[in-house]
Design a protein that fits this description.
The complex is a heterodimer of chains A (359) and B (394). Chain A is built from 14 helices and no strands. Chain A is globular and about 105 Å long. Chain A is 69% helix and 0% strand. Chain A has 359 residues and is mainly α. Chain B is an alpha+beta fold and 394 residues long. In chain B, α4 packs across α7. The N and C termini of chain B lie far apart (66 Å). Classes of the chains: A mainly alpha (359), B alpha+beta (394). At the A-B interface, α2, α8, α9, α12 and α14 of A face α1, α3, α4, α10 and α11 of B.
Chain lengths: 359, 394
């Protein structure tokens, strides 16, 4: 009597599974696809190995300038000038102060949102900029370092941070003003400001701030060059933030406004407790996008004579014993910007998920 | 009865929202007017104290400096600051137009490449976008100008193609067309060809509505546009010739030279803006519901017909608004040319002219006004396109 024994399942045919199948499906499905793949491979072959050779295998990492082999990147230059790229002309003995500010900032960004007490949150938010300012500039017994000595990555981050933090409340007010239908004069003022700023390039606003702004104030008031740039950048960023938040406000259903009114909340109570938290949550991706643009735009301060990290490339190259190292300088600065911008966009995805309340 | 916990019900001035709105508006208006008054007052004081002249009479004065590229006749001994202003605007527009065309082409290719079924191409497009979008545009401009273009050979060792196009560190040099008498007929022929193509398109679409028959419009139009002017070119005895550049001494004489500043600016602007356009194109194509494509396929339409008649018209509605915003950004970013000295409006006017004349307020305001006009024109264009693209219920 024949007994039925189960047979082992046969593996799927190689035409519908496995590496070969994947390659055929994704890279060589037809003639034009194969041509594109070959083109892409040729492109990778001509760019990646020489780039790796230049950046890593043929590169010079240590030794003196005289021992440098010409073929690869001469990172020895970056190592030599590293302090200038990071701090500009900030006195070397005082580098611990910006370093401390960096540590405080990291703690601030990562731990403040996790605090449960609103009072401690509020107080630390007020204290944070004051402490940072005193640490970097000096005063209260610390040696004062004038803003003309600030530079490098430190200045880049500082300009971006001030621009982001200071423009945020102004941007919210502008967005609310633009949305206020029962106040036509306020609305017109806000629309005028936003559209004017958004219509012109940042560079003309920086020129305006550095050349025209001092004319607007009477003689007694002196403006620091850095402060003027910060005012220009803050106004510029506020207009862009306002438009992003307006988008968030428009996405809030009308019922939410009506609900807050029916609870007897005043305009500001309703805005702060109900509307703005939702609007800001919706706006997070666009807000981070706008912060990334601002971080990239800080490079423009070099045109009005501040020494941010990009300006340091030219400046370190004007040292007569270190001429002709532009490429290394530009590549180094490119990597720094790329890492910052890319991690900001990744961070935005993280907080987007954290604040996502749709379950 | 204890009513003390209830809000006051008096009809006081501040309790009605209307009154509050009016009071708030009057207050903010007063603050703004006072600020402006304070600024303008100080401004006149400061201007008088520093002995700065005011007004726009400086526009009539002779500029007296050279400009490395001018699209209108410019001469450093007789041209005025007004000419400088116009040269700057035209140079900005030149960068804008070339940059927009190049960025659109690269952006379209990369955006479609991002959705390619070819794994390698899709990943390469992604790497392109993530790399160039995260590097500041000013850094890219400086890199092209100070590193890539500076590494080109000197005029004597130029890279040359067919002995008529030369590339060296002074720029990109190509033949200059010379129009002799009779060449205007070619222009006329070209204009006539364009008009006839427009009418042909109208006729073809009407015929399609009536009979459902397709007319090979693109092929026929291209043929008309190429053949008609070519025919006239040979009939009138080839009236267009070219002046070829030639090496004389240390540099090239003759031909058209595209200066390295312009090249660096256009490379950087179009490569950077293309990353944003590519993302817009991808988002637009992904926004078309897949059911549309499947429905078209089930009707038996061919792949390219589906793309042209079903996917693209719907995708364009999503693609065009952000892309036009990117065009505006490109024009505004062209102001960074001032870092490498390409003679556009900011370099020439907020830079050189401001240094010579010193009238900061007038000059900065005029520069801003130029960009505001560009912005308004582009946003009017955007609204017009949006209105035309709207879904029309029938």
């Amino acid at each position: 009597m024949a007994v039925y024994t189960m047979k082992e399942a046969k593996p799927a045919p190689s035409t519908s599974k496995g590496v070969v199948f994947w390659l055929r499906e994704n890279l060589f499905s037809n003639i034009s696809n194969t041509l594109l793949t070959l083109l892409g491979m040729y492109f990778i072959y001509t760019t990646i190995p020489p780039l790796l050779d230049w950046m890593i295998f043929d590169a010079t990492w240590s030794g003196t300038k005289e021992e440098v082999v010409k073929e690869g990147a001469r990172w020895i230059f970056i190592i030599e000038k590293f302090d200038q790229f990071m701090y500009g002309f900030y006195p070397e003995a005082l580098h611990w102060r910006p370093n401390l500010v960096a540590i405080i900032s990291i703690i601030f960004v990562f731990f403040i949102p996790r605090l449960s007490s609103i009072k401690i949150k509020f107080v630390s938010m007020l204290l944070y900029p004051v402490v940072c300012f005193i640490l970097i500039r000096g005063g209260l017994g610390l040696e004062v370092v004038g803003t003309e000595k600030w530079g490098g990555l430190m200045l880049t981050i500082l300009v971006a941070a001030v621009g982001i933090i200071a423009s945020f409340p102004i941007g919210i007010l502008l967005a609310l003003g633009r949305q206020s239908d029962n106040m036509p004069i306020v609305k017109t003022l806000c629309v005028g400001f936003i559209e004017f700023i958004r219509g012109v390039p940042l560079i003309t606003i920086l020129f305006m701030a550095s050349v025209v702004l001092p004319l607007f104030f009477s003689d007694g008031i002196e403006f620091d060059k850095l402060l003027r740039a910060l005012i220009g950048i803050t106004l510029f960023q506020a207009a862009y933030i306002a438009e992003v938040i307006r988008g968030g406000l428009q996405a809030i259903p009308k019922g939410q406004y009506e609900a807050s009114e029916s609870l007897g909340l005043s305009y500001w109570q309703g805005m702060i407790l109900i509307i703005l938290p939702q609007a800001l949550k919706i706006s997070i991706p666009n807000l981070v996008g706008s912060f990334i643009s601002l971080f990239k735009d800080t490079t423009l301060v070099l045109i009005i004579g501040l020494f941010d990290i990009l300006a340091m490339v030219t400046l370190t190259n004007s040292d007569t014993s270190w001429l002709g190292f532009e490429i290394e300088g530009y590549v180094f600065v490119t990597l720094i910007y790329w890492v910052f911008c890319f991690s900001m966009s990744q961070y935005s995805r993280v907080i987007e998920r954290r604040y996502n309340t749709d379950h | 009865m204890n009513n003390s916990k209830l809000p006051p019900t008096s009809s006081g001035l501040f309790n009605s929202p209307q009154n509050r709105a009016i009071i708030f508006q009057v207050l903010s208006l007063v603050v703004v007017v006072l600020c402006i008054f304070y600024f303008v007052n100080n401004m006149f004081d400061n201007v008088a104290k520093r002995g700065i002249t005011t007004g726009f009479s400086f526009l009539g004065e002779t500029a007296g400096f050279g400009v490395s590229q001018a699209l209108i006749p410019y001469d450093d001994t007789s041209s005025t600051f007004l000419d400088v202003f116009i040269v700057g605007i035209l140079n900005t527009m030149l960068v804008g137009v070339i940059g927009i065309v190049l960025a659109s082409i690269i952006g379209l290719l990369v955006g479609v490449g991002r959705l390619s079924s070819n794994y390698l191409i899709a990943k390469l497009s992604l790497v392109y976008i993530e790399t160039f979008r995260n590097i500041p545009i000013l850094l890219q401009i400086l890199f092209w100008y100070n590193v890539v273009l500076a590494a080109l050979p000197s005029p004597r060792q130029s890279i040359s193609y067919f002995d008529s196009v030369f590339i060296n560190n002074r720029g990109f040099i190509m033949p200059d067309p010379i129009f002799e008498s009779g060449s205007s007929f070619i222009l006329v022929a070209f204009v006539l060809a364009c008009i006839s193509v427009v009418y042909l398109a109208k006729w073809a679409s009407k015929r399609h509505d009536l009979t459902g028959e397709e007319f090979p419009l693109i092929r026929v139009s291209l043929a008309i546009l190429v053949v008609a002017p070519l025919l006239v070119f040979f009939i009138t005895g080839q009236p267009i010739s070219a002046e070829y550049p030639a090496l004389k001494g240390f540099n090239f004489k003759g031909g058209i030279t595209i200066i390295p500043e312009l090249l660096a600016l256009i490379f950087a602007l179009s490569i950077y803006t293309a990353t944003y356009i590519a993302e817009a194109v991808r988002a637009g194509i992904e926004a078309v519901p897949p059911g549309q494509k499947e429905a078209a396929k089930s009707l038996g339409l061919k792949e390219h017909v589906i793309l042209r008649k079903v996917v693209l018209p719907q995708a364009l509605r999503v693609i065009i608004p952000p892309v036009i915003n990117q065009y505006l950004n490109l024009v505004k970013n062209s102001s960074l040319a001032t870092a490498i000295g390409y003679p556009e409006i900011v370099t020439l006017f907020s830079g050189t002219t401001l240094n010579q004349v010193g009238q900061a307020i007038e000059i900065i305001l005029m520069t801003m006004a130029v960009y505001l006009v560009f912005s308004i024109v582009i946003s009017v264009l955007l609204n017009w396109v949006n209105a035309r693209m709207e879904i029309k219920g029938r």
